[in-house]
Hints:
Elements: H1 17-33, E1 54-56, E2 63-68, E3 71-76, E4 81-83, E5 100-102, E6 140-142, E7 149-154, E8 157-162
Antiparallel strand pairs: 1-2, 2-3, 4-5, 6-7, 7-8
Amino acid sequence: MTLQYKVYTVAVLSASPTRLLIGLITLLTILLGDGLVVYAQSRSIDPCSTKSGTAPHDTHCDKYYTCVRNVTSVVDCPNGLVYIGGGGRSGRGNQLFGSCEYDFNVDCSGRPKRMLAASGAVAQKKGTEQINPCDVKGKIVADVTYCDRYWECVNGQPELYDCPTGLAF
């Protein structure tokens, strides 16, 4: 999976204090506009006190709290995935993305307000083996690992494509 991060650079060499302050304010405005929001709300589990540095969100199954340098923030799982815990393999299934997993592998009872992926987001599977799109009638199949990717048969060879941002196969 290719993760896309927006990178913001602020020139600090030979800048006056006023320019530095303006740059910092601009950077914070950009980051807050992109959804980097630090939450100071009550949580049932403090992520800074856990070994993994993560904790389940209180009301959303597809979000979780993370602690970095004693600052708690909310993280969204990728589309169609929900928090499973741990930040790595936890023995509770085949984790796909750090602390997140497909929703059918996770018990989200008690946190019913999760945001579900678009219909059809769950990949077509043959066990856990990827289906070759060149072996099927439609020549296009979902990726078994990520719901926002799909495979298409092009000139007899499977090619992997990403869905447009925010959409799932």
